[in-house]
Amino acid sequence: MATITLETVRKSYGKTEVIHGVDLDVADGELIVIVGPSGCGKSTLLRMVAGLETVTSGRISIDGRVVNDLEPRERDIAMVFQNYALYPHMSVRANLAYGLKIAKLPKDEIARRVAKASALLQIDPYLDRKPRQLSGGQRQRVAMGRAIVREPAAFLFDEPLSNLDAKLRVQMRMEIKTLQRELGTTSLYVTHDQVEAMTMADRVVVMNGGIAEQIGAPLDLYRNPASTFVAGFIGSPPMNFIDPALLGGDDGGRVGTMGIRPEDLVLTTPENGTLEGTVAFCEALGADTLVHLRLKDDSLLILRTDGDPLEPGAAFGATFAASALMSFDPSGKRI
Amino acid sequence: MQKRVTFHNRWLPYLLVAPQVLVTLVFFFWPAGQAVWQSMYLPDPFGLSSEFVGAENFTYLFEDPYYRASFITTAVFSTLVTLASMSVALLLAVMADRVIKGSGAYRTLLIWPYAVAPAVAGVLWLFMFNPSIGVATYWLKGLGYDWNHVLNGTEAMGLVVAASAWKQVSYNFLFFLAGLQAIPKSVIEAAAIDGASFARRFWTIVFPLLSPTTFFLLVVNVVYAFFETFAVIHTITGGGPQQDTNILVYKVFKDGFVGQDLGSSAAQSVILLFLVGILTVIQFRFIERRVHY
Questions:
Q1: ipTM of this model?
Q2: pLDDT averaged over consecutive 10-residue blocks of chain B (293 residues)?
Q3: pTM, whole model, 2 decimals?
Q4: How many domains does chain A have?
Q5: Residue ranges of E strands in chain A
Q6: Is residue B196 part of a domain?
Q7: Could you say which of A79, A82, A87 has the minimum Cβ distance to residue B193?
Q8: Is residue B159 part of a domain?
Q9: Is B182 at the interface with chain A, CB within 8 A?
Q10: Is residue B44 in some structural domain?
Q11: Looking at the partner chain, which of B194, B195, B292 has a beta carbon nearest the beta carbon of A89?
């Protein structure tokens, strides 16, 4: 159980700064998801907390103790890697016990903890197998088990579900979330998948280009994005961005773009619509259909409807409640 | 899955393997057969005729204390060469693996000795350790040690081992480095987070994962120490002083071409052939089991 605090943490490789000062307070027992596109620095940030990368400037504290200059093993953390990083020459049991043996725990205590973790993760039948004899999902569980048995102050997850197939990913993310809540261990979880961020996080950190663009509860980010980047990254399909000129509301260049979520748009006849366009194509997802309208300026507008797919080429209008419209200044900040 | 190739002409496959078969026949089976044949004959001093003596060459060899001593010498020599060249190479590879800046230059320099011909390497070490004019001998004298490998058998052994191992370090280094770089970085990082110190990570994670490389190099190095160190021994000690560095391969040459005892020399080659066969089988049978692929 611990808190994690990051104070203006920066990271440079030579002269190139990749993380430009990130501040973050993680409360005890909280699950924080750091999400962002490739190369935004999210994994580097996590590896700095783990002690696998040095901190160029700023301070990282775990449970009130500054860990900048501590070795990974002195930080009382456990990490789950994207490729699981299991020890290939050891049995599952030995993989789980490795850290405990190094910590010189008594034999019966090691056995007790391994048994507990393997029961929790349902990997009992595989304890004597080698990692290569396991499926991806089973390996993932072993990697989780290796983190759990150590009973660390914090869990660090580095895109742990990226190597799993879509169905298993949905199942595992709920399992990780449930497990984390049961154990109450403070966790940092890095992913590029905004759905994982939305479904798992107590709070989400959206990273972009080495800075934390916005930190907040998943639904807060969804309803009140601070920038076009967050608005476009959180939510699927992403928010529509519309040239203010199309809405006739140009007020001297103060507003750069207007944003509206696909589910806030309603399809109507061309005459009644605030926006009008022709159907470019439709994606029927079963429960609902995504209609892509081509607007006058040739941009695409996505609408989420619950009807059947529409004929391409047909002319339609789109309306929305004024409260659903968000304005962003030319630099992308929310007004 | 193996693909079966179908040939329309039934002679074409034989034609295609013919060069390899020919090379093996001419350069292996013929001389090996010749050796087996000759090992059962005793030529007269002028080489004009030879007499069939059956296994007499062999029984004579095993009663010869010099030959038995050569076995011990070979065992000591190849064990030392293999151990020295592999451990030094592993140490260098582990260090090179950690170097980030200028690693290319560092590696190139470490690989250079491999390009030196064995005889040249031997002469190089011979000059350095020459009892009267060698640089290393001079330094050792400065430290109060009187080096003379021409008279001292232990020193002679040390010198041929050093020269032979030095030449093989580059080769081992390359393979160890490749082996180290094939280990996923995250596995090492996981061990670091699990609390393992550098030494502990090395012995519990890195070394076991390197075992396929280590096993391969073990076989290669033993064969190297047995056969390919001839030039080094020939240039540095010529098997001496006394018989102290007279390893089996060198004895085959010395007894046969210097001593003109072709029958005994042939018998020694046959014994060597079996020895290497047995060694290889042992290595694959017993050591490979402990290798984690």
A1: 0.82
A2: 70 90 92 87 78 83 87 91 94 84 79 84 88 86 83 87 90 90 90 89 92 87 87 84 85 84 87 85 71 55
A3: 0.80
A4: 2
A5: 4-13, 16-26, 31-35, 57-62, 65-66, 77-80, 154-158, 186-191, 203-208, 211-216, 240-242, 257-260, 266-268, 275-284, 289-295, 300-305, 315-319, 326-328
A6: yes
A7: A79
A8: yes
A9: no
A10: no
A11: B292
